[in-house]
Amino acid sequence: MPQLPPTPPAEKDGLHPRNRHRGRYDFAALQQATPELAQFVAVNQHGTETLDFANPEAVKTLNKALLRHFYHVQQWDIPAGYLAPPIPGRADYLHYLADLLAETNGGAVPTGKRVRVLDVGVGANCIYPIIGHHEYGWRFVGSDVDPVAIRVAKQIVAGNPGLAGTVDLRLQPRTADIFSGIIKANELFDLTMCNPPFHASQAEAEAATRRKAQNLGTTGGGKPVLNFGGQSNELWYEGGEATFTWRMAEESALQRNNCLWFSTLISKKETLPGLYKTLQKRGAVDVRTIGMSQGQKVSRIVAWTFLDPVQQQQWRQRRWQTNQGPAEKASETRPDK
């Protein structure tokens, strides 16, 4: 059974207490793990080592170093232009979801392979399964509409023996759907998670890229480049974040007995009222909004369940407290199936 991650020095405001990235980046240790990071590290005017975060290749190489140093992932790479997300924030999401499960488990985070998580939009980077398995021993299903993302994520899993048997990657055949076509009729998940596309169109995403490039001072008169990258399906969805999360809420109601807690990141506070209204209309029993912040960036998790407290305890007893030997697979399916 994995040990919970330690509490690092609290130097980055807002990150979860168990987040390994609360301390400053130790570039010496990261360069030892990934020597190619050295070309992107420089000393600023304050005499402090820092990274050129406006450079997509520098960000990707930093991710590679962080994954090697903290999560023992030796083989990790993504195609040019694919999302290389900020790892500290991704880790935060997982730690807050762990706290949510702990509420149903007498304050203790349930760990190990009994806990199954669905990552909607896993991406080529496969970040959530990597961190979630390392920190808590959880198993994951990762879905994506992009065949290239699924292929690359599979290569990452295959290239790291520690991930063997922990991540099942599934192609979503219908680009508009979220849970439909992914969650099987009798399949159970303790959590679902998602970093939804924020923009409503390609034009909106490109405008946001230009604004970000101007803020970073990287326009240079040419086409702006996203420092974290991102393909079209990773950045925009017709109707934007509000439409995507509305559909997620609608589809979750059809899977109400298949999952303990559904969740999604929400970037825009304007999305919240419509999502709350849909969840209330569809009969969510409990809806949580969990604030997250890293420096000046503020985001939030919205999590919801259709199971009442009695049903939640029944879920706990059936899935996390029973001895799962040969019958382990049976506990992954609904008892009425």
> Rg from C-alpha positions?
20 Å
Uncertain runs = 7-12, 227-232, 323-328
* CATH homologous superfamily classification: Vaccinia Virus protein VP39
Reading off the top of the CATH hierarchy, the class is best stated as Alpha Beta
The third-level CATH topology is: Rossmann fold
Q: What is the number of domains?
A: 1
Computed structural class:
alpha/beta
CATH architectural group = 3-Layer(aba) Sandwich
Q: What overall form do the CA principal axes indicate?
A: globular
Number of strands: 9
Give, in order, the helices and strands.
Answer: HEEHHEHEHEEHHHEHEEH
Instruction: Kindly estimate the percentage of residues that lie in beta strands according to DSSP.
Output: 15-25%
Task: Give the SSE map.
Elements: H1 27-33, E1 41-43, E2 49-51, H2 56-71, H3 87-103, E3 116-120, H4 127-136, E4 139-144, H5 147-158, E5 167-171, E6 189-194, H6 202-216, H7 232-235, H8 240-254, E7 259-266, H9 272-281, E8 286-294, E9 297-305, H10 309-319
Helix pairs in contact: 1-2, 3-4, 8-9
GO molecular function: 23S rRNA (adenine(1618)-N(6))-methyltransferase activity
Protein name: Ribosomal RNA large subunit methyltransferase F
Catalytic activity: adenosine(1618) in 23S rRNA + S-adenosyl-L-methionine = N(6)-methyladenosine(1618) in 23S rRNA + S-adenosyl-L-homocysteine + H(+)
Report on this structure.
- The chain is of the alpha/beta class.
- The chain contains 10 helices and 9 strands.
- It has helices spanning 27-33, 56-71, 87-103, 127-136, 147-158, 202-216, 232-235, 240-254, 272-281, 309-319; strands at residues 41-43, 49-51, 116-120, 139-144, 167-171, 189-194, 259-266, 286-294, 297-305.
- It has a 7-stranded mixed beta sheet with strand order 5-4-3-6-7-9-8, sandwiched between helices. A two-stranded antiparallel sheet has the order 1-2.
- Strand 4, helix 5 and strand 5 form a beta-alpha-beta unit.
- Helix 1 packs across helix 2 (56-71), helix 3 packs across helix 4 (127-136) and helix 8 runs parallel beside helix 9.
- The longest helix has 17 residues, at 87-103.
- The protein is globular.
